Amino acid sequence: MKSFLSIILLLIAFSMAAQIPLKGLITDAANGEPLIGATVALKGASLGTITDFNGSFQLEAPGEDAILVVSYTGYLPMEILVGKQRAFNVTLQENASVLDEVVVVGYGSQKRSSISGAVSSINSSEITQTPVLRTEQALQGRVAGVAVAQNSGSPGSALTVRVRGTSSIGSSDPLYIVDGIPVAGLDFLNPNDIETINILKDGASAAIYGARGGNGVVLITTKSGTQNQSGKISYDAYYGSQSPWKTANLLSAREYAIISNEAHVAAGVIPLPEFSNPDALGVGTDWLGAIFKDAPMSSHQISVNGGGEKSTYALSGNVFNQNGIVGGDKAAFKRYTVRASGSNAIKEWLNIGTNISFTSLTRNGLPENNEFVTPLVRALNMDPVTPVRKSNGTYAYSRYSDTDITNPLNAIEQTYDSWHSDRVVGLVYGELNLTNDLSFRSAYSIDATFAKQDIFYPTFDLSNDPVLSDAPAGEKRAVNSVVLNNNIWKNWQWENVLNWHKTIAKRHDLSLTAGTSTSENHHDYNGGANTNLPSNDPKDAYISNTIDPIASQSAYGGADESAWQSFFGRANYTLDNKYLLSASFRADGSSKFGKNNRFGYFPSVSAGWIVSHEDFWKEGLVNFLKIRASWGQNGNDQIGNYGYTTVVYSGQNYTFGPTQVITNGSVALTSANPDLKWETIEQTDFGVDAECWDGRVSFTGDYYIKNTLDMLYAAPIPLTPGTAAPVTNVASVSNKGLELSAAYRNRDGAFKYSIGGNIAFVKNKVTSLGTGGEPIYAGRVQSANSDVTKTEVGQPIGSFFGYVTDGIFQNQQEVEIAAFQNENTAPGDIRFKDLNGDGTITSADQTYIGNPSPDFNYGMTLDCAYKGFDLGVFLQGTQGNDLYNATVRYDFNYVNRPVSVLNRWTGSGTSNFEPRVNLLDPNQNARVSDRFVENGAYLRLKTVQLGYALPKSMLKKMKFEKFRVYISAQNLFTFTKYSGMDPEIGAYGGALNAGVDRGFYPQARVLLGGVNVTF
Amino acid sequence: MKLHKLFFFIALVALFPSACQKDFLDRKPLIGSSEENFYRSEADAIAAVNAAYAPLQFEISPAGHFRWIWGDIMSDDAIKGGSGDNDANELLQLETFRGPSNTGNLESEWSADFEGIYRANVVLERVPAIEMNATLKTRILGEAHFIRAWFFYNLVTMFGGVPLADHLLAPSEYNLPRAEASQVWALIESDLKTAALSVPPRSGYAQEDLGRITKGTAQALLAKSYLWQKRWAEAEAVANEVIQSNEYQLVTDYAAIFTQAGENNAESVFEIQYMNASGGNWGKNNANEGTFTPVFQRARGQFDGYGFNIPTEDFVQEFFKEGFEDPRLKSTVFRVGDAMGDRGIFTKEATGGISYDYYPKKYFTFKNEDAPFGDPNPNGGTNDRVIRFSDVLLMHAEAAAQNGNEAGALTSLNRVRARARGNAANILPDINASGQTLIDAIYRERRIELGLEGHRFFDLVRTGRAQAVLGPLGYVDGTHNLFPVPQSQVQATNGAIRQNPGYN
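^ inputs. structure came back:
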């Protein structure tokens, strides 16, 4: 074969008369830097060359009528007639337009200009501009219509990601596809490995993913090597320090004693004698100050990539470490990632490749966002009179705090909860070019996670007197114990896709895609626990080291599985590069659904019109204008695996016999729903894409209506049947939204800059909750021992619901003329509004008092570069959302309070907002009311990054291709009216718990420095 | 297309069917059995009825619904206690008869009762078709009849008429409205009669079945049901059957009843079994074998408890009304200065914060009785003494007195007093009264003998004395003789379940 080719080439060479030798230099028009690896080819010929390290090339042309085509990724290509010239100095203009970028869509890719759906993209520089642990964090604020909020600032905590609103009461998490592999969660993924993220937002784009695409699809493509590129070695690293940017203002010991005394007197209880002289107590303990500590975060990455004529390769290794600002290494996240990808054209008609990653991660966990046992809620509520430590250096316990509120530092120290997982995600594929127009790709992938969780509960005792053991129950543990949980997830997927593409008569561009996908998920779990280890050293914490009898050991184990079988197809047709038409269809079979509804069918159509390509379009300010519309149906199948059948479980035990033997009982706890099926999410989208001024200005706008029909919901049933409600397809939700994004890029001169912004408005409304339509109450907060959210037809999901305050009763007369609250209501108590006017405050006087979903989310970027300097600024925020502040445990008598209590009512005219203090709170001033609803809007300076890259001239001497150093700050400023520690509170505990602050682990302010080196 | 490419393509495509068998999407649960494969063997039948016993132990999901909350805190015998008014404030509202209808406590009670009824119905509908030993089958069905009756008894005495779920409900029946109380009582009566005919007497069970429903259990609950309905003759007769069966005796030492050793003793007629070594946690319905009662009732602070169900002065004074201290007080209440075994001497200081003069003692557990492993709080091991033989004797006495058989009434009443008297000759003399005086003496004996065992509130309502006794606390007859139906159930059935009068 090779010799045959040589002969042909030789023949060609002889048949040509004189070849003209050409040489030249390709540089960047803006800064004169040489462009390395630019392609120089002869028009119409397949042969060409690439520029070397100095940006120069040599090539032979067949004649003077030959045309040189010079191209370089990200630059406008250029064609030059050879003519008499023999040496060429070519300067390329950077291409500001994004229309030619290739966008990965499901099972294929398309040029941005020819897409008729709503697809947004984020590139690697945007992803890495804000150094983060989880890729979801990098999505925040970057794309209109993708709302991201932190569920907790604890390193590695999952995030709430919503593509176009909350589409379900159940899971609204999007589908994540990494290199074609569906994955659960992105904590395994190293953000530095990502080349692009494309988000399929509208129903038509996502419909190719059928029953799993309903909440939007996030397609992640990792970096791969480039053909004909000599190997590049890169080292990227950063090191930073995290610190809290805000704490809450709480009472000092002196103030605490004053309030406590007053509360006792008001309740008719004798004040505590030790508080008789508050001034003597001084400032006391700053518990928040005590739990917050600066914490490091760092990342080191080495990557190598390149490729030959027929093969490419990319390798990377990364070590990431982040400690928590609360808990330090008790909240640490460590991750080791290795990734290898390669492709090889082993035959002219066959290309094979692989992309495999291995991640080993360890996450130490502290309890998050609950009112019971988190370090935050303890530090917020612990009385300031108790010192952190006793005089002998050991931790002190409080004489006043109750049950949950224990010494937070000791609680952190006694927490040993470590999650470790080893995960392999990878695929192998072959691409077969059957004919010039027809190709076939087969890919087999695995996603296997081996995870274990080790928990150790050591013994401790904060008692002052070891014999009396005087510490309350929460401040001592007499018997230690160890818990082990193992999980193995093994998922595989096999996909086969045929692609046919042909341009007919230069007018009709048609591509067809058809494929199958088969996958299976299997989950095994087991674990156990036992008590009484002879050693209190966590290193010895293994179940087999315990000395308690084997009978005291608990063990469990089980498994579940699910399977999918899918068929899909898509047709894209473009006429005259003006009229775009696309249609897709997917049939999804899932084992999660009963035989009655095993297969679901998901169609979509979309169309676009590139108005600016019409002949009548006058070249003017607007060079590109496309209007598009799409409609599609998707599904959401994120429910348990066996909801369609009645399952009888054992373990409903009772004890019998004189020695009380545990005897098995078995019963089904839930009634089945054999008609169970996916949620159907139907979406219509209208959009416009435009570019003006040669691509310097770009604009995209979308309006959509997204209706979730047949929403999966265990609609509450009466308790009469004695079983839990089955999940049924009864409810529906609508999301309507407007998304706008615009950017201005100027790459003309030495000073390059771009500014961009995006904003997304979304209105969420529940449209049905099944036959009875009973509202859902959820989001229980302990301080009021009551639910704070209500979800009802006509209202947004998870709206805050409670009483409306109407100032403070200033005197007894006001109490008497107002609606009756209870017999102990007194001046200084809150007047609640009698909404139904029946003269008595009852539960019927509750109403909607807030909405945790923002009216809009927005993001803004500013990037500029001059000479070697670059500056990136990124802001992000929300507007119109409320938060419910449930951090103060009003259900306890001796907790600390925010300083706002200093402005309490103490007599007529003293306060019309902050009620009197009373140990017993007879009026229940702490009930769920708008008193605790706060404005959750914020604007955050998410990232500022300043970098400097050494000039090429200097690099050449050093044999470097790139050497850049940078400093960066995250969360430098946050503008918010929220009184808590962090306004960015996701939906920890699901959509019905969104925006409830139960002692949120705040995000850190990060200052870091980094380096990017390539050679 | 070249042949080799085609061959390769076909080879790949040919793999496809081998990966997806016909039943590839048909996945059965790996844990548990699907219902169609269960209820086939004797073992399945036993497992089914055991699962119906399990809700007897339910007491805390999502909020406490202990028998002592309804029987004692609601009465004049005890107040809520806890760390202050805001600690389980709903109980404070209930016991002062300002009760909200949407408490977790009431909903939990309602939920556990109907879950128990469901499980009993599963047994009654699925077990008959199982091929198995006929005697055992009869017994299992009898046990299920009792369990169903017990949960309906809880419901009818607390809420009045409730939906009559006497079979497994189809989805179309979920909104079943409330039946008349008389219909519920009729079902209870028929279930208990069937149970009494189907299950063996206490002595007829093997040792390993100790704790199962006996003929005496069914008859004792039947007697109590008749008392509620003022069917005195039937009540006297069936209580007498229990007495005459000689299956039960009063134990000599009253104090011993409430110790670990006193569990399932000779006077135990119905006892809910709890043990401390099942390692359970605070999960739904504390689905394990332990009880929270000891930790809820122990004093706070040094005694590691939550300090609920605090005896009132009025209750304590009842023990002194005959001119001496009734010896049963020591077993019922502990006071300052009492030595409480390995938990130390009780002082007010030891409780930290809010403390009381009296604390309940019948469910007090010592440190050495704490769970040997796991969290001790959900793993209390004390059995709940629901019906003791002395209760049966007093039921008999009450029914007999109402029937005019005063001699019989006095015999039963004085049996209870004699045991309490023990060897102390100069206290608790035999009563020799008649008419209303006798009936009042029986009522008073119930308050003392069965104090803090969850009876008082129901006894007051049942005997029509609630208005007189609880009126000062806010009780209004016609409203507070019944609890409000959980408001959630009114909503969930679109009003098909009606709220009780006087509540909204």
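Strands of chain B lie at 33-34, 78-81, 268-272, 308-311, 333-335, 358-360, 384-388. Chain B touches chain A through 100 residues (CB under 8 Å).
thumbs up if we can close this ticket
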